[in-house]
Amino acid sequence: MSSARFLDKLLGGVAVEWTVLGDERFIEVANAARRPVKASLRVTGKTPYYGANNIQDYVNGYTHDGEYILIAEDGSASLENYSIQYATGKFWANNHVHVVRGKQWLNTKFLYHYLHIVDFIPYLANKDRSKLTKGEMVKIPLPVPCPENPRKSLEIQVEIVRILDTFTELTAELTAELAARKKQYKHYRDQLLSFDDREVEWKTMGQVAEIGTGSHDTQDAIEDGDYIFYARGREPLKLNVFDFDETAIITAGDGAGVGKVFHYAQGKYALHQRAYRIVPGPLVEPRFVYHWLASHFYGYIQKASVSSSVTSLRRPMFLNFPIPVPSLTEQSRIVAILDKFDVLTNSVSEGLPHEIELRQKQYAYYRDLLLSFPKPEAVEA
Questions:
Q1: Model-level pTM greater than 0.70?
Q2: Is the separation of the CB atoms in 16 and 26 below 8 Å?
Q3: pLDDT band at residue 195, thresholds of 50, 70 and 90?
Q4: Which residue from 205, 24, 187, 7 is spatially nearest to 105, judged by alpha carbons?
Q5: Per-domain residue ranges of the chain
Q6: Fold agreement between 3-171+367-380 and 201-325
Q7: Is the pLDDT of residue 3 over 60?
Q8: Residue 90, φ and ψ in degrees, nearest 5
Q9: Which CATH class is domain 3-171+367-380?
Q10: Backbone angles phi, psi at 365, to 5 degrees
Q11: Which range has the worst mean pLDDT, 149-158, 224-233, 276-285, 349-358?
Q12: At what angle do helices 328-346 and 286-304 cross, to 10 degrees?
């Protein structure tokens, strides 16, 4: 069913009035109660303290009590994904958010969902800093279905909210499940990779694996290249040539990813000149090395560093990194358990992250379908 037909059926032939967020018939702007509190002066409590990008702290006291929407005034995470927050009960709002809610005949949750499809960029006073003044915010267009029949209007709004909340609630459940599984994964990983009380031989990474770097720079990347190009970040790139054909663990040599394991390479790939490849030898299972590095390498690098934060790795840090070498049978047993958790908690193709992404796409699809009301020419302009 097309968007237009879906909306026609939902609206049942009633008209939609386009107004603005400053229309006091439908919207209450509760900015006056906002109060900033410096972090050093905040008294720890149970009330969430909201800034432009979600909850920053928990404090005593509150500025608002009820159901509200918080729209970032400045400091929003990105122009493409403007910060819109939904708060209920007692909370503290600082002066970096606009605080609004629907009045009697406008459902606040309806407004919350609608604001997620608004293009805020034309209303920003300073596009580099995402500054949204109250004077510009109140100009943002707002659709109100069937305003001449308030009860019918609310019925339509509530039905839209019910449909969209189904997806957001499912996403929230999956996100909570993912957090629980990650905690469980960490518990089993720590338990399975703790060899202090076992009979196990210890070696260094240089004794059990080949360690080296690539030869390419990020600027060599090609959007539609034939081979995976592992650079220093989480997202791999593409190239039309490959450097290696092997199984290897990849980690960044410098930058934000230092000490963290992002990639497990299998087959042909290209490698950045400041990324390291660890190629396990016959004494160790590659996936065992992967899990060991993912669990212990970042902590090892932090302790081995003279400074508090490591910005660049050198080959001796890898060569001297200690690794336990239980029997290959025991390594395989450990890998079988940890791989299941790894897929469940990290896979974007079959695990919980994949399910969450699908639900988010469903939500976005139905949100656009339900809230893309036809606009008259005056509103379009």
A1: no
A2: no
A3: confident
A4: 24
A5: 3-171+367-380, 201-325
A6: yes
A7: no
A8: -80, 135
A9: alpha beta
A10: -65, -50
A11: 349-358
A12: 80
